Amino acid sequence: MIGDRSVHVFYDEVMLGHNPEVDLPFMPSRVEKRVRSILKGLDFKWSYPEHPGRLTAIKAYLDEHPIKGVQVRTGAASAMYNQLARVHTASYLDHMFSLAGKRAWLDKDTTAVSPESINAATAAAGNAIAAVESVLKGECNSAFALVRPPGHHAEPVRARGFCLLNNVAVAAAHAQAKLGCERILIIDWDAHHGNGTQDIFWAEPDVLFFDTHCEAPFYPGSGHIEEVGDGLGEGYTINVPLPETAGDVAFEKVFRDILVPAADSTSLN
Question: Catalytic: 51?
Answer without folding.
Answer: no
